[in-house]
Design goal:
The chain has about 500 residues and is α+β, with helices and mostly antiparallel strands. The chain has 17 helices and 24 strands. The longest helix is centred in the C-terminal third of the chain and has 27 residues, at about 365-390. The radius of gyration is 22 Å and the shape is globular. The relative contact order is 0.14.
């Protein structure tokens, strides 16, 4: 039976997973890939160390599963979106890679917004404008580090860099580069008019051509085979933006399902065969299934906020996450006015918002604060879900993936706030499995995504909403929105 290697490149952890053609997980290996923060708002990583981490996880995986390299029929990727991984004209990194939580280009984004640029770019890129978009970061380099800007030979996304190290082929995977503000989503090309709106029209010739998710432009090189322990010539496929990988694991092949991914980012995703006209500037990209597009709403407002809270305030507890779940069960839903704004990295309700608590009083303890943290994360997620539901309609099956899916109290809160049933997809590593599905299709084991999803996607369990809780949550959610709107009117803090 052939096996497929899926490599998941997150913002802080790199994982390699091995799967058979039924989607059964043979094993997973992971390594932390430490972020570098040389300045406030910066979030970077050493690109050569990143490659070594990939090699290390592959070797560990092969060793502990005792899988011969010859049994691996294909390799593919899932990777964080946005950010920027630059190499010079010789294909060598000359500075750190930039992760999707990087915020250095916020002044450029504010200036673009003041000039009305988002309205001009949206009909071409179908993107909103974030400081971590490659286009915004490239403009930051042009304005603030022209020497580095002049050294740019090739513009890559996270998995494009690793695929290049594996094969020597330079290309930008289509589902990820379509979320960069560099690609015209209508034409599938790098549009000079789009680049000119960012003032980076000279960068177009330095962006490699798009690569399809199941396309293999080159096999594993002999050098990379020696470093990873894999077999030279093994097909290496384009891969996915991690949003798409999670959607694939949830079986999004048509417009009947919506996927919610809870991780560092909240991501809500839906697919359709056309881009409908709407007043709201939705974020679209080219889906992995030909002829389909995916719309997604997202922000770095999810589990990373809870991780910060646990690290900062519960460091001495043996099992802090289990304790958080227990504390949630001791309080009625939405039982206090305490609000948490989960904006430690960025917000989805205004450029001027920062993270924080509001409504604390001496009668409240750790339980009330923990409840507010979970509620704030879920409220921020509901902002995105409400926007997608306004486009798709509520008659869709809501599926959920991500690390928080292990917490039943958290999942019940999601269902209660949405006032919708949810299906929790039981997958440990949606990034790795989604990438393996791409490799299985590219290798010819399955003729299409529909057949591969039917064979390899994991099972899901259903959680019904407690509608008695929906109304108090809705009232507190409305106050959350009012608070965010009031605070966003303050002057920028940075």
């Amino acid at each position: 039976m052939p096996h497929f290697l899926g490599i998941d490149i997150g913002g802080s952890v790199i994982k390699s997973g091995l799967y058979d053609e039924t989607g059964r997980e043979v094993g997973v290996a992971s390594m932390n890939d430490a972020a570098v923060a040389e300045h406030v708002g910066w979030s970077e990583r050493d690109m050569d160390a990143m490659w070594r981490s990939v090699c290390g996880t592959i070797r560990e995986l092969l060793d502990k599963t005792e899988t011969p390299a010859a049994d691996i029929a294909g390799i593919s990727f899932s990777a964080h979106g946005k950010g920027l991984y630059l190499v010079d004209r010789d294909g060598k990194p000359f500075r750190n890679g930039i992760i999707s939580s990087d915020n250095r280009a916020m002044p450029e984004v504010r200036a673009f917004k003041a000039a009305g640029v988002p309205d001009e770019i949206h009909p071409m890129s179908y993107q909103q404008l974030w400081p971590s978009h490659p286009a915004a970061i490239l403009r930051w380099f042009k304005d603030n580090d022209p020497d580095a800007y002049g050294r740019i030979g090739h513009v890559l996304m996270a998995h494009d860099w690793i695929r290049y190290r594996m094969t020597g082929h330079l290309g930008c995977e289509v589902t990820n580069i379509s979320g960069s503000n560099l690609l015209n989503v209508n034409t599938g090309t790098y549009d000079p008019a789009l680049l000119a709106l960012f003032g980076i029209e000279d960068i177009g010739e330095r962006i490699p051509e798009p690569v399809g998710s199941t396309e293999s432009p080159a096999g594993l090189s002999a050098t990379a085979a020696a470093e990873t322990g894999l077999k030279a010539g093994t097909p290496v496929f384009g891969g996915f933006f991690d949003v798409v990988s999670a959607a694939v694991c949830s079986g999004l092949a048509d417009d009947s399902r919506i996927n919610v991914t809870m991780g560092t980012w909240t991501i809500v995703t839906w697919t359709t065969d056309h881009i409908p006209v709407s007043e709201y500037p939705y974020t679209w990209g080219r889906y992995c299934i030909p002829g389909r597009y995916f719309v997604h709403e997202g922000s770095p407002t999810n589990a990373s906020n809870l991780e910060w809270f646990v690290r900062t305030f519960m460091a001495g507890h043996d099992k802090p996450y289990a304790e958080c779940d227990r504390l949630l069960g001791t309080l009625p839903p939405a039982s206090t006015p305490v609000q948490f704004l989960p904006y430690l990295f960025s917000s989805n309700l205004g450029d001027n918002l920062l993270g924080g608590f509001y409504g604390l009083a001496n009668a409240y303890g750790l339980g009330e604060v923990v409840q507010a943290v979970y509620e704030g994360i879920c409220f921020s997620q509901q902002v995105h879900l409400d926007r997608i539901l306004a486009l798709s309609g509520r008659g869709r099956q809501l599926r959920l993936t991500g690390g928080p899916a292990k917490s039943r109290p958290w999942m019940q809160m999601v269902a209660d706030i949405a006032a919708l049933p949810i299906e929790v997809v039981h997958v440990e590593q949606s990034g790795c499995l989604g990438a393996a599905i791409a490799a299985a299709i590219g290798s010819g084991v399955y003729p299409s995504f529909i057949e591969a999803m039917n064979a390899m996607c994991p099972a899901a369990s259903r959680i019904e909403p407690n509608l008695a809780h929906a109304e108090p949550y809705r009232r507190k959610y409305e106050r959350f929105l009012e608070l965010a709107a009031a605070l966003d009117r303050l002057s920028p803090a940075m």
